[in-house]
Write a structure and sequence with these properties.
The chain is of the alpha+beta class. The protein is 52% helix and 16% strand. It has helices at residues 2-17, 152-183, 191-224, 232-260, 283-319, 327-359, 363-391, 393-399; strands spanning 52-59, 65-76, 78-85, 94-96, 102-106, 111-115, 121-129, 140-147, 406-412. Strands 5-6-3-8-9 form a five-stranded antiparallel beta sheet, with no helix packed on it. A hairpin with a 4-residue loop joins strand 5 (102-106) and strand 6. Helix 3 runs parallel beside helix 5. The chain is elongated and about 90 Å long.
């Protein structure tokens, strides 16, 4: 139990620690030397894998300024650029007429330019002005660092929430179950503790299942309709609001059913979850809870993932897109499919047994569902941190220290006029 708890905490921390890009731009401590970020000890990404397609610098006719153009096949989410003497390690000159959402980083010998927000560009046109001490049309080397980590915070927010919910489930719910199995009875033996245990069990499992369903839908949007999640308003309505409303609904639904609605269920202090709960005391409420609160989001994860995979394969075949352009989408798809496979293996048998048992009452199937398959569902939640570690490329890259910025250079000399 202790080792698994450490694994969950590690998965949560690793997922959070991926988010180490600075949305406000590069700090002054990267002014000299390699210009690499000081977040971790990363090495530059090879230019052969760089998404930058154009990086030109040319002296203008006034002999005082240089025009710099940077183009990328992927949106530039963060950048830091300087002008230096050829093979030098200190900046010189400054940038003038800088674009919006950028600002100057004032260094001792010259200025660099970096982003000041999360705005993205596919092209940057800059103008650099030489210092007064420099000769006209002297050779200048421009060094650029393109950061690619700023985008991942949005993609991983819901995965962080899921791991946090799993951690709370282990601390507040599974720990009580282990105590029950160790003793053979529930302690303390009170009605309020039984309701607390039932409430925690339902809300932690329900919130995790609904978050995974929302994750499935959002991955579909990010792959095929990314324009729906670009503006702040779109993210509020299609990302944050569904997460908040679904979790609020689960918390309030079970609070009303367990704590407010009169409950005539008799507690059995020698049975798991105190025996038959308050929800099972009302058959119609129990059926609604099972089909809408549990099975509906579960099948959204399973079938939604299958639909996403089929459409991705069909689209790539039809449009003959290469792997390079789809690498970011494949990362999200693989991550989602890992969770969907776990849900399929765990929930499909229980769902089939429960549906059959509703239309054709069978004591043997009822016993299999209650005493075996129901407890296997805990595996679906507990496997999420493990899946996050195994199938998330960014987390694997973090463990191998292979998440790297792109370094590019351009030289302006007399020959480039």
């Amino acid at each position: 139990m202790t080792s698994y708890l450490l694994l969950v905490v590690s998965a949560l921390l690793l997922t959070i620690q991926i988010i180490h890009g600075y949305p406000s731009g590069a700090p002054k401590k990267v002014c000299t030397g390699s210009m690499l970020p000081h977040h971790r000890h990363y090495t530059p990404q090879p230019l052969a894998k760089s998404p930058i397609t154009k990086f030109n610098s040319t002296w203008n006719s006034d002999d005082e300024t240089i025009s710099v153009i940077i183009e990328s096949k992927e949106n530039i989410k963060g950048i830091f650029i300087q002008g230096r003497k050829l093979n030098g390690d200190e900046p010189l000159g400054t940038f003038i007429d800088i674009p919006s959402s950028t600002h100057l980083v004032q260094c001792p010998t010259g200025d660099g330019l970096t982003h000041s927000s999360r705005q993205q560009w596919s092209q940057l046109k800059l103008k650099w002005k030489k210092p007064s001490s420099m000769k006209a049309k002297e050779t200048v080397q421009f060094c650029s660092i393109r950061y690619s980590l700023l985008r991942r915070y949005f993609y991983y927010q819901i995965l962080i929430l899921i791991n946090l919910l799993v951690l709370l489930n282990i601390i507040l719910n599974v720990s009580v179950s282990l105590s029950y199995y160790a003793r053979g009875y529930i302690q303390p033996q009170t009605k309020h503790f039984c309701r607390y245990w039932e409430y925690i069990d339902y809300i932690t499992s329900g919130c995790v299942i609904w978050c995974n369903a929302i994750l499935t839908i959002q991955r579909y949007l990010l792959v095929f309709h990314p324009h729906y999640l670009r503006s702040k308003r779109q993210k509020v309505f299609l990302h944050y609001l569904p997460i908040i409303l679904s979790n609020f609904y689960i918390i309030m639904f079970y609070a009303c059913v367990i704590w407010i609605v009169p409950c005539n269920a008799v507690n059995d202090y020698t049975a798991n979850l105190c025996g038959e709960g308050c929800i099972e005391d009302v058959p119609s409420l129990s059926t609604f809870n099972w089909f809408f609160n549990i099975l509906f989001p579960v099948f959204t994860v399973i079938f939604g993932s299958c639909i996403l995979l089929v459409r991705v394969l069909w689209t790539r075949r039809k449009m003959q897109r290469n792997l390079r352009n789809w690498s970011k989408n494949w990362k999200m798809i693989v991550q989602l499919l890992g969770i969907a496979i776990v849900y399929s293996l765990v929930w499909l048998p229980l769902s089939a047994v429960s549906v059959i048992n509703i239309f054709k009452k069978d004591d043997y199937l009822d016993m299999i569902g209650d005493e075996y398959l129901y407890y296997v569902t805990y595996l679906a939640d507990m496997c999420i941190p493990i899946v996050a570690l195994i199938v998330s490329p960014e987390i694997n890259g973090r463990l191998r220290r292979q998440i790297r910025p792109t370094v590019a250079t351009s030289i302006a000399s007399r020959d480039t006029v």
